[in-house]
Every structure is written in structure tokens, then in C-alpha cells.
Amino acid sequence: MITVEGKAKINLTLDVLGKRPDGYHEVAMVMQSVALHDTIEMEKTEDAIQLSISVPWLRADEGNLAWRAADLMRRTYQLDGGVRMHLTKRIPVAAGLAGGSADAAAVLRGMNELYGLGLPCRTLCDLGASLGSDIPFCLMEGTMLATGRGEILKRLEDMPLTWLVLAKPRLSVSTAWAYQNYDAQGAAVHPDNQRICEEIARGDRKAIAGLLCNVLESVTIKKYEVISRYKAMMLEQGAMASMMSGSGPTVFGLTESRERAERIAGVLRQNTDADIFVTHTTGKLTND
Ligand SMILES: C[C@](O)(CO)[C@H](O)COP(=O)(O)OP(=O)(O)OC[C@H]1O[C@@H](n2ccc(N)nc2=O)[C@H](O)[C@@H]1O
Ligand SMILES: Nc1ncnc2c1ncn2[C@@H]1O[C@H](COP(=O)(O)OP(=O)(O)OP(=O)(O)O)[C@@H](O)[C@H]1O
Any idea which fold 2-155 has? Predict the structure, then answer.
């Protein structure tokens, strides 16, 4: 039996450059992995794919991205067996943190290892991209500039280790809905991706914090005002900067220390009904 991990991500920036003929949007965004992760135990079976999950409310059948990733590997490489998996879910679902993508990435890695396929990361990324735009990033981890529909990745220097607070309101946002509504309203402010990449290369945490920008934020805030409230609370409590991740609704606040992150988390836990996590940024996984 092996145990694999899938880490959550946050978007330091997210820009939408236009709508494509295939229905996806052309994006340019800086993505960052964080330590909050799901764990999947995996062992070979004769032929079935079996999935159990630590929470009852998430489907454990062929609709689950972990299941679909295992099935994709089995079909693509005509494997002569299946896999039994147990998923310990910690990353909030439909939260803008790529939880499902993280699980799929972990299973792709796990099947590669269990079946001794020896596939390089870039092959797993190509396969992963067919299941979801965020999956290639979840395979690479660290700090990346993502373009195309999010699957074209350029490795950046790892962002300097930064503690952060995550606040997940008790609501879920559909990614497709957020992109669709963006088309109707656009955004007044766009991220400066070139500058943030330069500041990441310099390792200037404060400058990075000053450049956070996500064009989907105003779309989701329009429907769920609570997001602005959590942002304001984090800033009042001394976060360097605060922003919604991905299509939301999770809000993250970057902080100067673990102590500050814990303090902000304490205030949010007392004054809101959001799910609150304290975590930190993590670096690259492979030497691609
Ligand atoms: C919001 C982000 O999480 C930011 O990192 C990603 O762009 C979304 O990545 P994801 O959840 O892996 O998205 P996918 O599963 O590939 O797509 C879900 C839906 O989101 C919309 N979508 C997604 C990515 C993209 N570049 N343009 C889109 O319009 C499409 O309607 C698509 O059907
Ligand atoms: N293993 C999984 N974990 C979480 N959600 C899953 C999983 N498999 C399928 N899903 C479905 O995928 C949808 C999106 O969940 P996910 O947690 O990946 O969203 P997200 O954090 O908003 O992702 P992103 O940031 O990539 O847009 C949910 O509606 C959920 O039912």
C-alpha cells in the first residue's frame, strides 16, 4: 500500500484574457501550492476501482475526480489491475482551492508508482489536463505562471515561505458560473503578472502581497457579499493582503508570521461561521 498527498492551491493572481471557441477562457495567473492537503491510501486490486472517503457528503463513484484519474490511467496504459483507494478529505470542496484537482493529481502519481510505469511528470500533466485545467499545476506544485486554459505552466522561483489564513464561507461556487458571469461584466482592474513574477524572483514577500489581483473576485463578491467582509476582517487584524482564490468563495490572507496567522484565525473563528485554516506556502515538488 502507498500513501499519496494532493495539496491545495491559491491564486496570487488571475486574469482572463478572452473566451475561446472551445468554451474555456484564456487565462494568465500565478498559482501557489499550500501545505493544506488531502491524503489518499492506494493499493492494487485485481481489476476494480474502489473508492471510500472520510466524509459522507462527497460522491465516491465515477463522478469523483480521484476515481476518474485512476480509470484514465487504467485505460490509457491498459493496466491489468485496478486500485482500492481511501481518500481523507481536508481541502474544502468547490472552494476555489482545487481540491478535486489535487486528488486527481495525487492518484495519477500514485498509479504511476503502484504500477511501476515510470512516466515523467510532463506525461502525467498531459493526461491530467484532459480531466481538469488545474490538474497539471497540482502535479508540479510550488509557484507557477499558468496560461492557456491554465494547463501551460512556467516554473517560477518558489515564493518565500509565507503563512496564511484561509476562510471558506458556508457556500459553494461553480467555476463555470464564475467564468460565465465574468463575460457579462468584465473587470476594472487587472493583475500585473510581469511585475509579480519579478517580485517572486526577488523574493520580496511584501511586494508580492501588494500585487495580488483576481478578476473573478468582483464576480463572486457581487453574489456573495460575505467575501468582502472576510477580506476586511483579515486586513483589520493585520494581514499583509487578502484576496479570493480562484472562482471562490475561499478568502486567503497572507501574513508576516505564523503567530499573526493564528491570531487572525482565532478572531475569524469567533466572529464568523466560516471554516478557517492556518497553513503556509510550499515549494516545488520535482526538479522538472
Ligand atoms: C478558477 C481556477 O481554479 C483558477 O485556478 C481554474 O481556472 C479552474 O480550473 P478547474 O476547476 O480545473 O476547471 P475545469 O474543470 O477545467 O473547468 C470547469 C469549467 O470552468 C470553466 N473554465 C475553466 C478553466 C478556464 N480556463 N476557462 C473556463 O471557462 C469552463 O466552463 C469549464 O467547463
Ligand atoms: N475528489 C474530489 N474532491 C472534491 N470535489 C470533487 C472531487 N471529485 C469531484 N468533485 C466535484 O468537483 C466539484 C469542484 O470541486 P473542487 O473542490 O475541485 O472545486 P474548486 O476548489 O473550486 O476547484 P478549482 O479551484 O479547481 O475551481 C465539486 O462540485 C465536487 O462535487
Answer: Ribosomal Protein S5; domain 2 (3.30.230)
Q: What is the 3-state secondary structure (H, E, C) of 224-248?
A: CCHHHHHHHHHHHCCCCEEEECCCC
- Answer for the pair 102, 90: CB distance below 8 angstroms, yes or no: no
Distance from C-alpha of 155 to C-alpha of 270, rounded to nearest angstrom = 39
Measured in angstroms, how far is the CA atom of residue 72 from the centroid of ligand 1?
A: 19
For the question of residue 71 being annotated catalytic, the response is no
Counting ligand 2 atoms within 8 A of each CB, the residue from 54, 65, 72, 149 with the most, and so the one to mutate, is 65
What is the CATH superfamily name and number for domain 163-280? GHMP kinase, C-terminal domain (3.30.70.890)
The pLDDT of residue 286 is above 70: no
Confidence of residue 270 (pLDDT cuts 50, 70, 90): very high
- The answer to the question of whether 261 is labelled as a binding residue is no
Closest-CA residue, ligand 1 atom 14, reads 132
**Ligand 1 geometric centre to CA of 237 (Å):** 32
With 0.90 as the threshold, say if the pTM is over it.
Answer: yes
- CATH 3.30.230.10 domain locations along the chain: 2-155
